[in-house]
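Is this the right way to post structure tokens for a design question? Let me know if I should format differently. Anyway, here goes:
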């Protein structure tokens, strides 16, 4: 199972292009709108995710396989009852002579068997299935962590969209105020009417941007609702969380130490290593096919027929037959089937080892990439802060000059557009930094919930 970690920027760039109702923190409000905290969103998603349910079924199946491999060491016991009837001239089952009567014949039996030695096949099968069960447990833990991370991403994407929408709306309010002031200046003859027309065109453009950001917010909410997969939830309202301020200082854990910690706790790596151990036991199971098999069996039977005038139970008592036997089966030539099974088991172990190495390699590469992305996001945020601060000063000056008529609308609009873009970029870089932090927390097994 591959771990899916989506890029935060990929989800945020959408703007550019039963727990259910009874959950304590998921309170129905405003009709069908559900208020969610981050922790409750994660909880609901884990309860309803179909991939999680599928892995839970696989886990139960692995538990059954382990139990059955243990049960294979137990004796078996079978009972049989046979009833037959012959018509016309028949063989008397007691005298072996011909008899012209219609004869009814009844046979009762018990058979028991127990495997004493089979080259360790049962014991190694138990160990192999135990490793498989533990690997399935790690798979389930991994998919749950992955779903949790996706929910955190979707939650942050919604908060980011809400902040961007808020900024876009404030931009339109600023432009509306500017239009009001400009109308007065135009009416007073201080400015040309074209300045007012340009501002109204600017407002129309900004209102179009508001629609785009609202569409982005709606899409991000849909993404989270789909992750929740709860049919009772059709609209959501998120509780705001305190977003930490990004900084360019190094993550609290160095990359090498972080990788070492991740190796020790990441379920995908654990599952891969357990499957290597399982494959090793698979080789032992295959080799057991070349060993002799020693088994013990016992049986007891009794017969009854109308060919004798003796009572039913007397016949059963007088015809009892008890047998105990010890059998040894020695494989001499199996058409190379055992040799092939051993070779195939060896290939499975080799492939399991390759998958374990790939899991470690992917983990290392993902951590390295996340570490670099985190530092870049922090530096981008700090650079964005400086840019916004400088552009705010520049815009205030441009606004005064525009009102005084010393610069044209094109120059004024360029300053405002640059400031708007910088503010939006700053918001996105902030949330990008937070998510990158959560990825590194994820690899260390830390809580993803704020």
């Amino acid at each position: 199972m591959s771990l899916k970690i989506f890029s935060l920027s990929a989800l945020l760039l959408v703007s550019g292009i039963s727990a259910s109702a009874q959950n304590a923190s998921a309170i129905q409000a405003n009709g069908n709108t559900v208020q969610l905290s981050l922790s409750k969103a994660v909880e609901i998603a884990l309860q309803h995710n179909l991939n999680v349910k599928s892995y839970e079924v696989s886990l139960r199946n692995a538990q059954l396989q382990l139990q059955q491999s243990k049960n294979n060491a137990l004796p078996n016991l079978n009972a049989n009852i046979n009833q037959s009837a012959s018509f016309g001239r028949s063989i008397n089952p007691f005298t072996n002579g011909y008899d012209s009567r219609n004869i009814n014949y009844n046979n009762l039996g018990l058979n028991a068997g127990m495997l004493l030695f089979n080259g360790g096949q049962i014991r190694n099968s138990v160990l192999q299935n135990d490793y498989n069960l533990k690997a399935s447990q790690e798979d389930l833990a991994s998919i749950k962590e992955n779903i949790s991370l996706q929910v955190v991403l979707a939650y942050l994407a919604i908060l980011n969209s809400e902040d961007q929408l808020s900024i876009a709306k404030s931009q339109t309010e600023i432009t509306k105020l500017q239009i009001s002031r400009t109308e007065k200046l135009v009416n007073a003859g201080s400015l040309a009417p074209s300045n007012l027309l340009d501002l109204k065109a600017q407002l129309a453009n900004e209102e179009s941007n508001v629609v785009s950001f609202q569409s982005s917010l709606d899409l991000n909410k849909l993404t989270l609702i789909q992750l929740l997969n709860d049919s009772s939830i059709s609209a959501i309202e998120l509780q705001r969380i305190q977003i930490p301020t990004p900084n360019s200082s190094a993550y609290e854990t160095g990359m090498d130490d972080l990788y070492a910690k991740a190796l020790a706790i990441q379920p995908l790596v654990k599952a891969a290593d357990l499957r290597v151990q399982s494959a090793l036991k698979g080789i032992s199971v295959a080799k057991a096919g070349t060993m002799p098999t020693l088994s013990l069996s016992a049986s007891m039977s009794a017969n009854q027929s109308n060919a004798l005038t003796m009572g039913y139970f007397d016949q059963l008592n007088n015809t009892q037959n008890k047998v105990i036997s010890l059998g040894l089966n020695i494989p001499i030539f199996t058409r190379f089937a055992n040799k092939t099974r051993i070779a195939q088991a060896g290939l499975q172990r080799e492939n399991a080892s390759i998958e374990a190495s790939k899991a470690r390699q992917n983990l290392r590469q993902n951590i390295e990439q996340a570490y670099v992305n985190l530092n870049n996001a922090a530096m981008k945020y700090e650079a964005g802060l400086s840019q916004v601060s400088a552009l705010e000063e520049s815009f205030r000056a441009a606004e005064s000059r525009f009102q005084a008529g010393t610069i044209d609308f094109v120059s004024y609009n360029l300053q405002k557009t640059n400031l708007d873009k910088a503010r939006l970029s700053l918001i996105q870089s902030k949330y990008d930094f937070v998510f990158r932090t959560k990825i590194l927390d994820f690899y260390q097994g830390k809580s993803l919930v704020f």
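Format looks fine. Someone answered above. Worth noting: DSSP finds ten helices and nine strands in the chain. The chain has one domain: 8-80+118-293+336-443.
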